Amino acid sequence: MNMPQWQGGDEPAYSFGSELLRWLAPPHDGPEETVAVPEPDGSSPPVSRGIKWCAALLSQARAAREAIERHAPDRIVTLGGDCLVDLAPMAYLSRRYGEKLGVLWLDAHPDVMSAAEFSHAHAHVLALLLGRGDEAFTAEVPRKLDARRVMIAGMQGWNADEDLILKELGIRHIPPAVLADSSRPILDWIETEGITHLAVHFDLDVLDPAHFSPLLFNRPGMPEGAFDGIEQGRMQLDQVVRLLKEIGAAVDMVGLAIAEHLPWDMLRLRNSLAELPIMKS
Amino acid sequence: MNMPQWQGGDEPAYSFGSELLRWLAPPHDGPEETVAVPEPDGSSPPVSRGIKWCAALLSQARAAREAIERHAPDRIVTLGGDCLVDLAPMAYLSRRYGEKLGVLWLDAHPDVMSAAEFSHAHAHVLALLLGRGDEAFTAEVPRKLDARRVMIAGMQGWNADEDLILKELGIRHIPPAVLADSSRPILDWIETEGITHLAVHFDLDVLDPAHFSPLLFNRPGMPEGAFDGIEQGRMQLDQVVRLLKEIGAAVDMVGLAIAEHLPWDMLRLRNSLAELPIMKS
């Protein structure tokens, strides 16, 4: 499923990132759906119940659910878009696989805030899946995830609000250094909890922005210190690939969402090419 | 014309760079040709007359000429691939427009060496167009360019071999600092030489690798100092766009080749996605 959703991070470039991700992904022979997302028109975000673009995000989450239900698949690959694209796929997989499902959340951030803490809903999605947050969104998750079968991986730091919520929800997490050379802690969790089916949320920002450029933190033209205090990823792409391959050998990987792809240089190049005189003729 | 040629720089990633450039380029309504280029198979490069992959490069240059001649176009956009992709398009435009044609060579390097100095033919192409270098390649240029109507732009430094050849051929050049805020020197050259039709060679490595990532110099995993002594670009993408737009208002832009696109992060991401368990099912 392609979901070029950009409103959850209020950043139009997520839409382009999703399209390019689809071009990069290998061919497949399953059905494919693309959730319709309005193009950004430069208008300022409408806010409802403390959430920017709230109505559009809810409508897109419902459209994603309907797209999934049309096929009732065994497995879902979701190409985002902002992190909130994983609401409908995770909700579907939770209903389908119940207590057999584990959720691995590869992310530099826990995504557990709510409108009280932050107006960008891409930072709410994991809490919503556990039943905490805006009621219209949690209503899209008929079977909430069980915190024991959720693991955040690759997260080094979090803020005070997040700390309280993580404790309240009882979500565990593993820092990036532990996973750099070993998949063992994840494999142990899978075994201990009896997980046979796994859905992976791969927020690309779990990667170190010094070694992987298409990330929010590499947005060009930002003033010095613009991202101060926001946790940045520490993992390497090949570490994540190794982790997912080793896990995939132990469990049935039934879900994968890739989110927060922001290929700035490709976007600049595309826009530049479109401006050149000979390209227009 | 798409030309995923990689042998001129002996770097398989040029092929991927060309495919992605095509995806990024705006839609057009002219005919489109893709020159067939064998996939790299990891074998070591055969060398003839001091040129790596010489036979393949010559065969591809001829295939490009034939592809162009099938349509006899007024204008050609070429998406490379290494810099040598511009041999056939420039040779065709030189024959078609004769003394009305100017050639603007946007590049951090002069591309004027020959097999005596360097075995990678992507560094030979401008000299070949002026009639200097391997005879099988210069034979592909029935009407040589006139050095007065060639201008290298954005070049800050060059080596001793290149210095001698630039003087021998009489090619002029303008450093990047002069063009950062003004297109005037190029516009003056166009006017003085009576140029009415312009072909542009845009080697992306004219751009500063600190501000634009998909360049050779940002190849991941290179040892410290691997590119010492090799001139790197200093221009900004928006400066090049401004330059080409201002020039395009003064002259008929009949050729544009974009070369040396090496989007490393996109290549790594594509290869990583293809390795993930759920993507294979």
UniProtKB/TrEMBL annotation, chains A, B:
Name the UniProt record assigns to this protein: Arginase
Single GO MF descriptor: arginase activity
Highest taxon in the source lineage: Bacteria
GO cellular component: cytosol
InterPro entries, A to Z: Ureohydrolase, Ureohydrolase_dom_sf
Pfam families given in the database record: Arginase (PF00491)
Gene3D superfamilies: Ureohydrolase domain (3.40.800.10)
Family: Belongs to the arginase family.
Membrane-spanning residues: none
Record key words, sorted: Hydrolase, Manganese, Metal-binding
UniProt KW Metal-binding keyword: yes
Segments of this protein annotated with the region Disordered: 27-47
Natural source organism: Sphingobium lactosutens DS20
